[in-house]
Amino acid sequence: MLGGTSLPALSLPAVCFVWQIAMIILFGVFIRYDEESDAHWVEFKREHNITSDIENDFYFRYPSFQDVHVMIFVGFGFLMTFLKRYSFGGVGFNFLIAAFGLQWALLMQGWFHSLDPATGKIYIGVESLINADFCCAGSLIAYGALLGKVSPVQLMVVTLFGVTLFAVEEYIILTLLHCRDAGGSMVIHAFGGYYGLAISWVLYRPNLHQSKRLNGSVYHSDVFAMIGTLFLWMFWPSFNSAITDHGDGQHRAAINTYLALASSVLTTVAISSMSQKTGKLDMVHIQNATLAGGVAMGTAAEFMITPYGSLIVGFCTGIISTFGYLYITPFLEKYLKLQDTCGVHNLHALPGMLGGFIGAIVAAAATESVYSAEGLINVFDFEGSFANRGVGTQGGFQAAGTCVAIAFGLVGGAIVGLILRIPIWGDPADDNCYDDEVYWEVRVPEDEESIPPVLEYNNHMIHKHQDM
Amino acid sequence: MLGGTSLPALSLPAVCFVWQIAMIILFGVFIRYDEESDAHWVEFKREHNITSDIENDFYFRYPSFQDVHVMIFVGFGFLMTFLKRYSFGGVGFNFLIAAFGLQWALLMQGWFHSLDPATGKIYIGVESLINADFCCAGSLIAYGALLGKVSPVQLMVVTLFGVTLFAVEEYIILTLLHCRDAGGSMVIHAFGGYYGLAISWVLYRPNLHQSKRLNGSVYHSDVFAMIGTLFLWMFWPSFNSAITDHGDGQHRAAINTYLALASSVLTTVAISSMSQKTGKLDMVHIQNATLAGGVAMGTAAEFMITPYGSLIVGFCTGIISTFGYLYITPFLEKYLKLQDTCGVHNLHALPGMLGGFIGAIVAAAATESVYSAEGLINVFDFEGSFANRGVGTQGGFQAAGTCVAIAFGLVGGAIVGLILRIPIWGDPADDNCYDDEVYWEVRVPEDEESIPPVLEYNNHMIHKHQDM
Amino acid sequence: MLGGTSLPALSLPAVCFVWQIAMIILFGVFIRYDEESDAHWVEFKREHNITSDIENDFYFRYPSFQDVHVMIFVGFGFLMTFLKRYSFGGVGFNFLIAAFGLQWALLMQGWFHSLDPATGKIYIGVESLINADFCCAGSLIAYGALLGKVSPVQLMVVTLFGVTLFAVEEYIILTLLHCRDAGGSMVIHAFGGYYGLAISWVLYRPNLHQSKRLNGSVYHSDVFAMIGTLFLWMFWPSFNSAITDHGDGQHRAAINTYLALASSVLTTVAISSMSQKTGKLDMVHIQNATLAGGVAMGTAAEFMITPYGSLIVGFCTGIISTFGYLYITPFLEKYLKLQDTCGVHNLHALPGMLGGFIGAIVAAAATESVYSAEGLINVFDFEGSFANRGVGTQGGFQAAGTCVAIAFGLVGGAIVGLILRIPIWGDPADDNCYDDEVYWEVRVPEDEESIPPVLEYNNHMIHKHQDM
Fold it and tell me: In its keyword annotation, does this UniProt entry include DNA damage (chains A, B, C) (predicted)?
């Protein structure tokens, strides 16, 4: 059943066991509770004159964390159930790699961002959990480009390297370049999108048409995918505001994202309808391009982009993303040999890149009259060695950060793609792509929804009878 | 494919583009961040002696906002997926009109309720977003009566006028009459329900029976609809408490709604089972009437209605709503020529009206011993020019407010219905109602769940063979 | 259609009406708002020098409450939609019994835990709602063992007694033995699991194989079940932290549960894949055993178990639970005559018991250096008459508490099972189990997903034609 493997396939159980045991050991060595989740909190509170438990960061961020968590597991997971016979793989492998990725992310992000040099430990709290979920998102986006064409072991490898690359580029962009990117237009979407595309490009399958019968949706699989779409769409304001500053920062990021997303929906519908002579809408566009506004607001959401600025961002990215599904994806497949199952180029890579540049422009245009002197310092964190950075310089660094994210995605993805071409991963044969039966026990024989070939044959029979 | 159009159909893309551009311009002129979402917050805090960011309204209301958001998009959307071949339209058009409606609502509600006369601007924060979602709900309820019988352009018109009418009636009821209606029994449910019914009555289709084959559910579409039902049911306590007073107001509204909803479930099940000789339950009742308790508590939830009072409200409305599905909807269709696809009369219009009157009675019965002197002032906002209003008077105004909401719904709906009869909207022909194929690309040919006519024919063939 | 009834069946409507009326009367006598949800809050605040409404417990717990609420209704409900023709019963009866159970739980838990002796009243707030949802969970777990084999009236009886037994065992374990069990490994999962298993054992059906054709999933019912799985999995950190101490208690419980669950996913996938020669994954394992880490952390989540300790717990329970599905469930059915539809033994009973003992060990190992002196007192509530209890003693009591929970489940379940054998409950015949048509109006004739026998016959016909 499996194809493309000339060496014995590396076994999924072995990978899961070894990596999970490694996680346990590394957590034992490095990870501890931070002061707000440790039982010493009662002493910490007294020492820092904190008068109420409600000041614990848990109450600022936990509702947003849970919304992000839903986006990662139900949002991304169900968005990928749209294929007629790959719903198990879509939601199930997403579950597997996110559950692994968030553990590895806590370590990688901890080492790069919050390792205490005195103790050699990483101290985690609710913000770490949000960041770990964010870090996984990069690899889940990459999965979107690979959906149906890779084995679960390959996905584990994609995630291992994806999380690693993410932590490094995030360190360069947020710490060294001192960019702001609360919702991750650059570090999550542009990186994750180009990472997945580069892997897919290296893994190009010239004979993928042999699985064409399964590369499509059925009526109810499209409805399942709408569960993913809607939970992503609804909770994106939480995504973009989850780790912004307490107070106005979280508040403003949520409002801006809410508005950009609303605007995306209308332009997506407009372009989708225009693209067909009959004026009919295409579910692929509604499921995906409606989300582009949230991606594109990932950097600028915490800035004073203004409510109408947010609407304009959503307006443009809804159009661009839908055009992407109509023209760019077919173009990339035909001329660049790039097979992108979910069209992550149109939903993540391109809007993420745009979001990075939008953030650069909005940052460069910031003024003290709009932000107030203190507000400007707070929003852009112009403190310490960055106290004298001007907004123009900040804009330049934001643009540079976007380029770093794309470069990490493309180069990292190409390398990981080459690793995945080693024939030990148990990837599916060209005529078995998009098929859950390769990796899942699927109970078909007594299924009321009988399998496609039979029904097709069945219809044949009917036509023959009509001819009689 | 389209019917009922003698003039060229107004195009959906044109409507989406023109309206979204109008939104951008109007937002540019009118909408700004309020003091809690503006970067000046740090100054505002100091000036007002606010000691902690946690006092930002974001932390009081954002979790409730997100629950309401889920109700609007997943709750209403999936509740309308129950039709066998209109699930795309149910969830997809709900998505479109809510995304448009919330933008228009921010403007309309802003003009009526929070336009700053000094600056001519509307300042928005998280409470504005909740109110915008609420305002959309009126039009989404109306969609329930029209489901499957109107074009997306017509729905955009329904929403444009629905949001406008909502803002006006809300201004009259909440501001001029000084009613309390935190969960919107009157302003949302009674208005929205009668608005949709009046439109449907004007758009009566005598030959709708030609689409009868599609006006029903299949097994899995009923399960999809339960996603909508449950998210509405679970989050209704957040709906009714989202904009009530901080502290005990939000707390009490959530408890009362939780109890009323629980009680509705038991009486819905009881009546549904009694209505069949076999004692079997009907999914239509479970999907809808279980929610009636939440609708009917929309006004009284923030009052001291007592926990057992809440149970009684749920008890009665569960019964009334289920009876509505059994007897009133067929009666309205047969004798009043009123086609109500989702039975919004039983779920929204009638329980909403009852909720308005329950609120009036509970308000009139309020006493200082139950509320405390200060509590009475807080709950009913007896301040400023209303400082001397007694609870009896308040009860009278609450009842009057309910009548205003109904009148706005009926008259407004009739007028909008007449507008929608102009033959330029591209509405479906009588034999194409409840059919996604009119407005959506539906991939059927290689679908394992092949379309009904084929299977029916298929079965025919089988029977013929048996005869051979 | 119904079988096993020699006396006239007790009617569902009668049970619903009588019990709901009883609830209203008992609520009228006993249940009142507590000081944080009463309109007197404004006075209470002043008297207790509470400076801000944000100190109202509503803002500490309401987001967690809503997550728990989703787990109870969507989580448990959709997890039980996996059967091909019992999805209505799975999600619908879960809805019914949870809505009844939470009302009865508010009363029972109130009488045992918070009856004010001065006034004879029970005062409820948001924490009461969470506890009521928890209390229902015990009976919903029991339903998992009985799924498809009992009538709704029987389920109401299971819930009536289940909630009652829960309140008693909870009183013994939490109040008399002074155990800590915030996430309910003992009081919810071990009790609920063994309660359901004991009932199922008494109700053993030797001829259940007559319904074998319906005891399985189809492709899309497995996807529906993943909705339940994921919402349970994502929100389990809220479940285990919902009623822990404000501040570090809630924070730490969420982190520990998040980690244990992630670890469970990897070992579940590993064992599931190992168990098949083909290395394929089984949806039953992914839907269930991935959750075992959350169950097993129910007691220890609020303790200083350390992040890597949480990973180890998830690691082990993922393995044990998956083994349970592979070997223990078939063993129990074959040798102990125990039919466990959803395998609650592997997901709740066994991991719950383990969780109780893990909690005992972690408690016994607690030290002042890890918890701080004050932290130790806070976490284990060593106050009042328990001020001098040592951690070793506490560990012993935790272990004893686990045994009490199991004993209550087994004995209580056996008694309730005997009650359910009285032939007045209208339970389904052996050849009608797992079939929604017994209790629900199912619209099949014009269904595009036609019923299995027809399609099977259909395929026959095709084969005959090929032979022709």
Answer: no
